[in-house]
Amino acid sequence: SSHPSRNGRCPRLDADRIRPLTGVPLWSRQFSNEGPALLGASHFGNIVLMWKSGAKQFKEEEDRFPEIRTRLSASAPDKDDELLEVVDLQSGRLTGSLLLDTGKGSYSVVRAMVAGDWVAVGDSANRTQVYSLARGVEIGKCFGEAIAMNLTDSLLVVQNGRGHLDLYNLDSMDRVDSYVFPTEIIHAQFSPAGNR
Question: Do 61 and 36 contact (CB within 8 A), yes or no?
Fold first, then answer.
């Protein structure tokens, strides 16, 4: 769970809702400056935290995690760029980070979904940008909102308009199929085996 401040950021983050039977928190993190925006948890077992690079906490995160500092050494972030941290829900361990160039604030990050090495980032311009978490590079982008990912077959489902789903190959971001339904789509998810 998180403890939001008046600005919607979370100065303390507790993973205490994951094991309701024991009531024992799995892990906790304190933030001495601004807490992160939470971009949601996924059934792949992670959560995404986000800060603007102009935030005071940004420097603390850079100092705390050498891998972030290494990645940032290749670029000088603008104050409106976004730092995304992917955290394992069970352990609280940082599994990867991304620095997103927002074009001097021309768009903002509104959601993120992580599966394996892929990070699907939704922005305020109705786009989904797909990144490699390990390499920190963009694989491609498309219009619409990412709603499901399939690790088995490297697939991404994007909703782009009422009743319209597009299926993309995550390795290339080529569209492989489209589906149109007569009504609004409420939920889409692959089967655990990934074959449906």
Answer: no
Whether pTM > 0.70 for this model: the answer is yes
Q: Which of 102, 68, 106 is nearest to 85 (CA)?
A: 68
Beta strands 118-123 and 164-169 are unpaired
**Separation of alpha carbons 171 and 185, rounded Å:** 25
pLDDT digits (tens, 9 = 90+) for 139-148: 999 999 998 9
Burial 34-69 (b: 16+ CB within 10 A, else e): bbbbbbebbeeebbbbbbbbebebbeebbeeeeebe
- Cα 67 to chain centroid, rounded: 17
**Phi and psi based region of residue 144 (left: phi greater than 0; alpha: psi -120 to 50; beta: remaining):** left
If you compute the radius of gyration of the chain from its CA atoms, what whole number of angstroms results?
17
